[in-house]
Amino acid sequence: MRNVRAIDILLNLLRIGVGAFFLGTGVLKIGDLGQTADFLTRSDILPEFFSMPLACIGIAMELVVGFCLVSRQAYRGGAVWGLVMTSVFLVLYLQAWIRGLSLSCNCMGSTHEIVNYPQDTGVRLLLVGAMILLLWDARRRDLYPTRKPRKFDFSDA
Question: Considering the entire predicted model, what is its pTM?
Answer without folding.
Answer: 0.78
